[in-house]
Amino acid sequence: MIQPAVQLRDIVKRFGSFVAVHPTSLEIPEGAFVTLLGPSGCGKTTTLRMIAGLLDPSEGEIAIKGRRVNEVPIHKRNLGLVFQNYALFPHRTVAENVAFGLRYRGVAREDIRRRVAEALALVQLPDLGHRYPRELSGGQQQRVALARAIVIEPDVLLLDEPLSALDANLREDMRVELKRIQHRLGITTVFVTHDQGEALAMSDRIVVMSAGRVEQAGPPEEVYNTPATEFVARFLGASNILGARVAAAGDGEVVLDADHFGRITLPPERARGVGPGARAKLVIRAEKLGLSPPGAPPGDGISIDGRIETVDYQGQVARYFVRVGDTQLQAINMIDEHPFSEGDAVAIRLRPRDCAALAGDAT
Amino acid sequence: MATVETREARQPWILLAPALTAVALLLLVPLAFIAVYSFWLRTATGADIAGFHTDNWAEALSDPFYRDILLGTLRIAAITTLVCALAGYPAAYFIARSKANRAILLLLLMLPFWVSYIIRTMSWINILGVSGAFNSALLAMGVIGQPIQMLYNEATVILGLVHFLLPFMVLNVYVSLEGIDETLEQAANSLGATRWQAFREVTLPLSLPGLAAGGLLCFVLAAGTYITPLVLGGPTDAMFANLVFEAIITQLDWPLGSALSLMLLAILGALVALYNHFVGMSQIARGFG
Ligand SMILES: Nc1ncnc2c1ncn2[C@@H]1O[C@H](COP(=O)(O)OP(=O)(O)OP(=O)(O)O)[C@@H](O)[C@H]1O
Ligand SMILES: [Mg+2]
C-alpha cells in the first residue's frame, strides 16, 4: 500500500473543557486534493492548524509521509500554508515574499531568482515582483500567497478558506486556477472551506465535519449522492428527507414504503445500514424532483400531485416549495421558458434510483 | 447655500477652533514673547533694554559651558531613550501577546500616571537615599557597615527619567505590535523561519514605527526635563532646562533664559521634524489612542 501523505490517528483537540475536535482519524493520499467541509465552528481550522503545527493535538498522532510530527516544530515541517487573509509581509516586495522560504532553505541566489520567477509565472503574475502587497488587488495577493507557499515545494499544501475574501466571480476563477496549479504540481493539498460548491468542484475527497466529528469522507459524487448521515444530506445541496418503513431488505435490493411516494426499491449501496422491519429516512435531492404540468404523460418513475407554495427564482433555475399533504418538499428545476407560479398544481416525478436511504426515523 | 462639500470642509475647523485658540493663546503668544525677549539686553540695574541685540544669542551659542551642558543633556536623553527601548520593547511584546490579561496589564501600565511625576521622582530618595530602604536592608544584613550614598549622580538621573518615561515607550510599541497580524509570524514560521528569525524579519521591522514614536517622545521629554536632575542629580548633573530655570528664576535674566530655551526648542524641533519626515506624526497619535 502506498503511504498516505498525511495521517491523523485519533487526534483530539480540547480548549479547556471544550472539545473542538473529537477523536478523528484521517488519511490523505499522496497527491490528493482533500477538502475539509463543514459549517462554521465545526473544527476545520483547528484540524488544519494541528497538521500545520500551529496547534498541538491534545491526544493522538499526526504523521506526514509516515513520520510522526507531533514534536516537530512548524518551521521544520516543510508545509505550504495559505491563510484566509493571505498574510503577505507588507514590508517586503512580492518577489521578496515569494523568496522568503527559499532563503531559509539555503537555495543559491541565482536559483532563488529563477524559482521566484517560475512561481510567479505559474500563478500568472510574471511582472509584479517589484510591487508591494498593498499595491495588489485581493485576487493578486491571493496568487502571491499561493506562489509563496508552493515555491518551497512543500510536502503538503494547507489552505484555510483561501477564497472566502474574494468576490463571487473572482472566487470561481481562482478555484479553477487553484485546481489547475494543484494538478500541474501534483501536490498533496488540504483545503478548508464551508462552501459546498467549492468542495464539490475541487476535491478528490471531501471530509464533511460537524461539531468536531467527521460525518463522512469520500469522493464528491459519493458524498453527494449517498450521504452517510442526515447532516451530510442537509448540508450538501438541498435535500428532502421523508419517513419510510423498510418492507424488505436483502437479495440485492432494499424495498421501502415511503411517505407520499409509496413503494421504492433501492440497490443496497444506496441504503447502507437499513435493516428489514425498521424505520428509515428517504433522502431525495431537490434537483431530483421533476415538476411538470399535471396530466403530462408519466415517465419511468413515480408521479404524485402537489401544489406550488413558494417560488425562489434564480435565473437559470428555480427553487420551488411544493405542498404534498402535510409535507413541504423542495424541488430545484431548470427553467424551460416560464417558471411555475404560486398556487399552480403540478405533478412531482421521482426516479427511485435517484434516492438514498438512511437508517433511523425522520424527525 | 452651503453645499455638502463646503460644509464638510468647514467642519474640522469648527471642531478644532477651541483647541486651536487655546494653543494660540497659551503657547504661540508666550513663545512670541520669548522670541522677542531673547533679543533684549539685561542691565545689572533697572529694566531690561528693549531692542534688537544679538548678545544673548552670541553668549548662548559660543560659551563652552552651555555647549557642554547641552551635549550632556542630549547624551542623558539618548541613554534614557535607549534604556527605555531595551526595557520597554519586551514588556510591550509580552502585553501584546498575552490574550487574557491584556486589559489588566495595560491598566497596570497606566497606574503610575495617577501619581504625580514629582512624587514618583522623590520616591527614589526613600528607596536609594542614605536612610532609604535599600541602605537599611544592606545594613541590617550586615553587608555594609556605613550607608552608601547612591543618589545624586547621573545614573540616578537616568534611573528617574526611565521610571518616568518607560510607560510612554511601552504604550507606543504596544500599539504598533497590536496592529501586526499574528498570522504574519505564523506564515514566516511555516516557510522555515524559527520564532526568533520570524520576529527579526517580520515583527521587529513592522513595529519600528512604534519604537521610533516611543523613542521620540522619550528623547524630547527627557531632554526637556528639569525636575528629575533637580531632585535626583548632584550639583554637576544640571541639564539644559535647569540652566533656563536658573537664568530666568534665580538670576532674573529673562533675555538670556529666553535665548537658551529657544535653542533647546530649535534642536528638539529639528528632531521632531526629522521624525515627521521619515515616520510621520500619525504614529504618535496612534500611541495615545
Ligand atoms: N483558541 C481557542 N480557544 C477556545 N476555543 C477555540 C479556540 N480556537 C477555536 N475554538 C473553538 O473550537 C471550535 C472550532 O473552531 P474552528 O476555528 O476550528 O472552526 P472552523 O470550522 O474553522 O469554523 P469557521 O468556518 O468559522 O472558520 C469553535 O467552537 C471555536 O470556538
Ligand atoms: Mg476556520
State the gist of this model.
The complex is a heterodimer of chains A (363) and B (289). Chain A is of the alpha+beta class and 363 residues long. Chain A has 8 helices and 20 strands.
Features:
heterodimer; A: 363 residues; alpha+beta; Rossmann fold; 2 domains; 6-stranded mixed β-sheet; 5-stranded antiparallel β-sheet; 8 helices; 20 strands; 23% helix; globular; B: 289 residues; mainly alpha; MetI-like fold; binds adenosine-5'-triphosphate; binds magnesium ion
Q: Please give the oligomerization state of what you see.
A: heterodimer
Helix percentage range of chain B: over 70%
What string gives the helices and strands of chain A in order? EEEHEEEHHHEHEHEEHHEEEEEEEEEE
Largest sheet of chain A: 6 strands, mixed
Order of helices and strands of chain B: HHHHHHHHHHHHH
Q: What global shape of chain A is seen? A: globular
Would you tell me the overall average pLDDT of chain A? 91
Using only C-alpha atoms, the radius of gyration of chain A works out to 24 Å
Question: What is the name of the CATH architecture of the largest domain in chain A?
Answer: 3-Layer(aba) Sandwich
Task: Please characterize this protein's 3D structure.
The complex is a heterodimer of chains A (363) and B (289). Chain A has 363 residues and is α+β, with helices and mostly antiparallel strands. Chain A has two domains: 6-225, P-loop containing nucleotide triphosphate hydrolases (Rossmann fold), CATH 3.40.50.300; 238-286 and 300-359, no CATH class. Chain A is 23% helix and 36% strand. Chain A contains eight helices and 20 strands. Chain A has helices at 44-52, 94-103, 109-122, 138-150, 168-185, 196-202, 220-225, 230-235; strands spanning 6-15, 18-28, 33-37, 59-64, 67-68, 79-82, 156-160, 188-193, 205-210, 213-218, 239-250, 253-258, 262-266, 279-285, 290-292, 302-313, 317-324, 327-334, 345-350, 356-359. Chain A has a six-stranded mixed beta sheet, sandwiched between helices. In chain A, strands 13-12-11-14-20 form a five-stranded antiparallel beta sheet. A five-stranded antiparallel beta sheet of chain A has the order 15-19-16-17-18, with no helix packed on it. In chain A, α2 (94-103) packs across α3, α2 packs parallel to α4 (138-150) and α3 (109-122) packs across α4 (138-150). The radius of gyration of chain A is 24 Å and the shape is globular. The model of chain A has no long low-confidence stretch (mean pLDDT 91). The longest helix of chain B is centred in the first third of the chain and has 34 residues, at 4-37. In chain B, α5 packs across α7 (154-178), α9 (195-223) packs antiparallel against α12 and α11 (240-250) packs antiparallel against α12. Helices cover 75% and strands 0% of the residues of chain B. Chain B has helices at 4-37, 55-62, 64-97, 102-110, 117-128, 133-140, 154-178, 182-190, 195-223, 227-232, 240-250, 254-278, 282-288. Chain B has one domain (64-287): MetI-like (MetI-like fold, Orthogonal Bundle), CATH 1.10.3720.10. The model of chain B has no long low-confidence stretch (mean pLDDT 90). With 289 residues, chain B is mainly alpha-helical. Classes of the chains: A alpha+beta (363), B mainly alpha (289). Chains A and B meet through β6 of A and α8 and α9 of B. The structure holds adenosine-5'-triphosphate and magnesium ion.
